[in-house]
Each structure stands twice: as structure tokens, then as C-alpha cells.
Design a protein that fits this description.
The complex is a heterodimer. By secondary structure, chain A is mainly α. Chain A has 13 helices and no strands. By secondary structure, chain B is an all-alpha fold. Chain B has 12 helices and no strands. Classes of the chains: A mainly alpha, B mainly alpha.
């Protein structure tokens, strides 16, 4: 397992290098001068020139990239143009919020999808199956920001059960923290729940047709044992696949969810920095999220091959 | 089989599919709204009327009015045009760039394939919305920039799909026969390989349009896509957030419009995919 992880990590290095190149190019090579982007088109040429010299933007692009990459490898992503705070520090400050939101959304989606997927496969063509199919179609087509608005309206404004927005850090109060997380977690997790439900249902249906399941049934095992012990294990592999494939979508949607619920996470940092034209922070956050995405995909890949020996042997 | 063409079989299958028919009906409604928007909308979508600010749904304003007295029904109808633009433009960008890349990667193979697939892998290393946001942020918050950004993030999906199809199709005898008869590579690709890629492209395009509509709405919701006063469903939802307690109808209708349109294209994609299954059974 460790050997496999090491091998995959080595293979990822060139990809990460290319990712860093794209992130750098995004800010420096696309039309639009970063100095103008930050200072605005009304800035006079002298101020623009001074700004470029101060940030090294007057140097050749290759030299700028080499210097930026060298610093990034040491964990230095530059400083915010607005607050002068190191970008890496700003990201790390907000990371716990985003991670907590991701974990909560993932937990919500699996808590909904696993029982729903299993029951709809086992009770195929029943009322439960119909409900699960409708949920999968609706959940996947519903824009997260609309679902969030509906949830805020119903549970925060009408019923007054939960806060409409805001964040209470975990160390400040565990119950308040969990309450502030409920609506964002459902907003972010519903689409994934819909996808996983659909995937698990078809995965279970496929597994339930296999010979070894028939053998287990013929041995006289109860339905609970056949489903829980024999079928589910294999069907869950498809869940790992779909969750892995959707990690990017989940990461992207944290930006919307954090904005909607005013959560001080990494996504909100990105949006605030875009509007304040703080392009070093934007660049840092994109690099951070892309590297995080590549590494989490790598972990999913390794986990996948660990769960399914056929892939490991191949 | 009764000797019918693949297209006829697929159409017959599609007509039998409930999912496909519901999807087609929703998409047809959406297309009808966009085409007839100026005729169907009862008011000018950008005309303000400060005498009827935040008016609830009524006979004169069936979906109510917004914070500066604009008619929400008219804005929802005209907003469909932005969504259609988003869907068509982004899929066009993805096709114009992704199709030749996928064809070249699959047909030429070797180093060309390695190079293109490595580039595809790099773009796929970014969460879609993060990359679209990054491109829009740098280019500036405008609808056309947002659409270009969404198109760019779709390119790898189309390139990879086409490459896979080409790899499968080019092993067929009819491709070998065309080559043996002296057909050039370009002729083989255009006349023999490309027509066999159209079916999966149709399915991918349907899902991509729905995703583009969602992404455009998301970017506009965040303030980085369509800019006011142009009616866009995403902007309308963003405005609705501020008046949720006083005027919940502000967000109800644009949200429902996005949901039904996205559902329509998803179901249509499912229907087309199911209808194309007979190919496998022949």
C-alpha cells in the first residue's frame, strides 16, 4: 500500500509541475496586465510602472515563474496585496472551515445515499425505489444555491430552527458549530447524495445478479447477511469511484456554499480576493485547491486499488 | 431486426422512453420561451416601476416584482436567452477545440496522443468551477468571459470522449478498407470516423448544456457572469437572497426555471443514451 502510494506520488510530480505552470500562466499570460487588474485602468503609467517593479512583474516571465515556483515549493505563496498577510497563512487560517464543511457534506450525502441506494436495489420497482429515483433526478438537477436559499427560508426564517448564515468555530462551541453547519452541509451534499444513490443502486443490482450472491442465498443465508456481508462490499467500490470523480465538483461548490452562508472558508477567500483584485491570493487559492484536488484523487485511486484487488493485480 | 436504419431504430426507442419524452418536452418548452421571449413577456424585463417594488404574485404580475419593481415573469422568460446562450456557446467552444484534439489524439496516436492527453489531464486537474472562476476573474466579470471559461473547462471532456470513440472505430474493417482503397487520413477521419462519433457527442452535449446552464447561473450568482441589468436566472437568485424574508417569490421562480431546464437536458441526455443502446444489440 505504502509502495503503491509512493509510486503514484512520483508519477504525480510532473502533473503538479504542469498544474503550477497553468496557474502561473492564468494570471500572467492571459490578456490583461496584473498591475492594471489591481490598480484599475484609471491608474497613471508611473504608478503602474512602480507597482510592476515592486512585485517583480517587469522581469521576464520565465524568471518570474522560476522565482514563484521556488517560493511556492517552500510554502511561500506571496503576500496579499490588500492586507500584506502571507497568502499561505490566509489559506491555512480558513482551511478548517472548508474541511469541516467538506467532511459534513460528504457525511450527509453518504448517510442519505447508502441506505436509499441499498433499499431501492433490494426492493426494485417498489415505492421506495420510485422515491429514490425521483430523489436522484431532482437532487442532481437542483442548483445548490437555490436549494440553499430554500433551506434558509424554511429552516431558518419560517421554522427558526437553525441559523440562516454565519459560522461558530468548533473550539468556541461544539453544538453551535454543528448547528451552523447543518444547512451548508445539506446544500453541498444533496447533489452528491443523488449521484451516489443512483450509482449504488445500479452497483447493487449488478452485484445481486452475480453467482456468488446466488451461492450465498443457496447456502441459506438471510437476506440481511447476503446484502450486508456479500453484496454491499463490492457495490461500495462504485461509491468510492463516484465520490472520487465528484471531489472536484464538491470542492468547487464549497465556494458557492461558503458565499451563500457567509462561511469564512477558502472559497469565500477566493471570491473576496477576486472582487478586491488581490490576484496573488487568487493565484495561491487556485494552486492550493488544484494541488489538493490532485492529491485527493491520488488517495482515492490508491484506496480504490486497495479495495479492489483486481485493479491492484492489473 | 426489420432492416430499419440505426437512426430509425434509435428514434423509435426514444419515442418509447418516458424519461426521454419528458426531457424533450421540458427542453422544447425552454427553447419555445427563448424564441418567443419578446412576444411572451408581458413587460420590458429591465423596465423599473418604483410604485410596485417587491409586489407579491398577482394577476398583473403573476410572478411578482423585484426590488426595483421589475416584472419577474418577464425577467424569467428573457433570462432563458442567457441560459441558452450559455449552453450553446460553451458546447460550441468545447466542440471547436475538443473535437479536432480528440480526433488527432485518437487517429494519429503516438506522441501527438501523449501530448494532447497530458494537456487534457492538466486541465482536468482543476476543479471545474475553480478553473472557470479563475479564468473569469482574470478576464473580468462579463458574460462572454464566463462562457469562454466554461467552454474551456469542457474541452478536455469532449477531447477524451472523441479520442476513445476514434480508438474504437478505427479498428473496424471499414476503416481498413477505406485506407486500402487509397483514402487520405483526412477523408477517413471526416467520412468514416467522425459520423460514428456523433451519437456519444449528442449525449455528451446534452449533459454539457445542462452543466453550462448551472455553471453560468453559479457564476452570475457570485457576481462574475452576466452583469445587471441583463436578466439572468443566477443574478435573480443572488438578488433574492437579500429579500428572502420579505419577498420569497423573488427566488422561487428563477430557481424553478434553472431546475426544470437542467432536469430537461439531463433527462433528454438519458433518453438519447437509452435510445442508442440498440446499436449495441445489433
Amino acid at each position: 500500500m505504502v509502495k503503491l502510494l509512493g509510486r503514484r506520488l512520483l508519477a504525480t510530480i510532473p502533473l503538479l509541475f504542469l498544474v503550477s505552470l497553468v496557474v502561473f500562466a492564468l494570471v500572467h499570460a492571459l490578456p490583461g496586465d496584473p498591475a492594471v487588474l489591481f490598480l484599475g485602468e484609471e491608474a497613471d503609467p508611473e504608478t503602474l510602472a512602480r507597482f510592476r517593479v515592486r512585485l517583480g512583474l517587469d522581469r521576464p516571465l520565465v524568471a518570474q515563474y522560476a522565482a514563484w515556483l521556488g517560493r511556492a515549493l517552500r510554502g511561500d505563496l506571496g503576500r496579499s496585496l490588500r492586507t500584506n498577510q502571507p497568502v499561505a497563512e490566509a489559506i491555512l487560517e480558513r482551511l478548517p472551515v472548508t474541511l469541516e464543511l467538506l467532511v459534513a457534506a460528504l457525511s450527509v450525502s453518504l448517510a442519505i445515499a447508502i441506505p436509499m441506494g441499498i433499499v431501492s436495489a433490494v426492493k426494485r420497482n417498489s415505492g421506495v425505489d420510485l422515491v429514490s429515483t425521483v430523489f436522484a433526478l431532482v437532487g442532481f438537477a437542483m442548483p445548490g444555491f437555490w436549494l440553499g436559499i430554500i433551506l434558509i427560508y424554511v429552516f431558518a426564517l419560517l421554522l427558526r430552527w437553525l441559523p440562516p448564515s454565519g459560522w461558530v468555530p468548533l473550539p468556541a462551541s461544539v453544538p453551535q458549530n454543528l448547528l451552523s453547519l447543518v444547512l451548508p452541509a445539506f446544500t453541498l451534499g444533496t447533489a452528491l447524495a443523488a449521484l451516489v444513490t443512483r450509482q449504488l443502486r445500479s452497483g447493487m443490482l449488478e452485484v445481486l445478479r452475480q453467482d456468488y450472491v446466488r451461492t450465498a442465498q443457496a447456502k441459506g443465508l438471510s437476506e440481511r447477511q447476503v446484502v450486508g456481508k456479500h453484496a454491499l462490499k463490492n457495490a461500495l467500490i462504485s461509491v468510492v469511484t463516484v465520490v472520487g470523480l465528484q471531489l472536484g465538483g464538491l470542492l468547487g461548490n464549497t465556494i458557492i456554499t461558503e458565499t451563500l452562508f457567509a462561511l469564512p472558508g477558502v472559497g469565500r477567500l477566493m471570491i473576496d480576493s477576486i472582487f478586491s483584485r488581490d490576484f496573488f491570493v487568487v493565484q495561491g487559492v487556485i494552486l492550493f485547491l488544484a494541488v489538493g484536488y490532485v492529491l485527493s484523487n491520488l488517495l482515492v485511486d490508491v484506496l480504490y486499488s486497495y479495495l479492489d484487488p483486481r485493479i491492484r493485480l492489473h | 431486426m426489420d432492416g430499419a436504419s440505426l437512426t430509425a431504430i434509435a428514434l423509435r426507442q426514444f419515442r418509447r422512453s418516458h424519461v426521454g419524452r419528458v426531457g424533450a418536452a421540458l427542453v422544447a418548452t425552454f427553447l419555445g420561451l427563448t424564441a418567443l421571449a419578446p412576444l411572451l413577456a408581458p413587460y420590458d424585463p429591465v423596465a423599473t416601476d418604483f410604485a410596485t417594488v417587491l409586489a407579491p404574485p398577482s394577476w398583473t404580475h403573476p410572478f411578482g416584482t423585484d426590488d426595483i419593481g421589475r416584472d419577474i415573469l418577464s425577467r424569467v422568460i428573457h433570462g432563458s436567452r442567457v441560459s441558452l446562450e450559455a449552453g450553446l456557446f460553451t458546447v460550441a467552444v468545447a466542440l471547436v477545440v475538443g473535437l479536432p484534439l480528440g480526433l488527432a489524439a485518437g487517429f494519429v496516436g503516438g506522441r501527438v496522443d501523449d501530448l494532447i492527453m497530458r494537456a487534457v489531464e492538466v486541465i482536468l486537474s482543476f476543479p471545474t468551477l475553480v478553473l472557470a472562476l479563475g479564468i473569469t476573474a482574470i478576464l473580468g466579470p462579463k458574460l462572454i468571459h464566463a462562457l469562454f471559461a466554461i467552454g474551456v473547462v469542457f474541452v478536455p471532456h469532449f477531447a477524451r470522449l472523441i479520442r476513445g470513440q476514434v480508438l474504437a472505430v478505427k479498428e473496424n474493417d471499414f476503416v481498413a478498407a477505406a485506407t486500402a482503397l487509397g483514402a487520405t487520413d483526412l477523408r477517413v477521419v471526416v467520412l468514416h470516423v467522425l459520423p460514428n462519433c456523433i451519437a456519444p457527442l449528442l449525449v455528451q452535449s446534452s449533459f454539457s448544456i445542462s452543466f453550462a446552464i448551472l455553471t453560468e447561473a453559479a457564476l452570475s450568482f457570485l457576481g462574475l457572469g452576466t452583469q445587471p441589468p441583463t436578466p439572468s436566472w443566477g443574478i435573480m437568485l443572488s438578488t433574492a437572497r437579500a429579500y428572502l424574508e420579505q419577498a420569497p417569490w423573488l427566488g422561487a421562480f428563477p430557481g424553478l426555471a434553472i431546475f426544470l431546464t437542467v432536469l430537461g437536458f439531463n433527462l433528454l441526455g438519458d433518453g438519447i443514451r437509452d435510445a442508442l443502446d440498440p446499436r449495441l444489440t445489433l
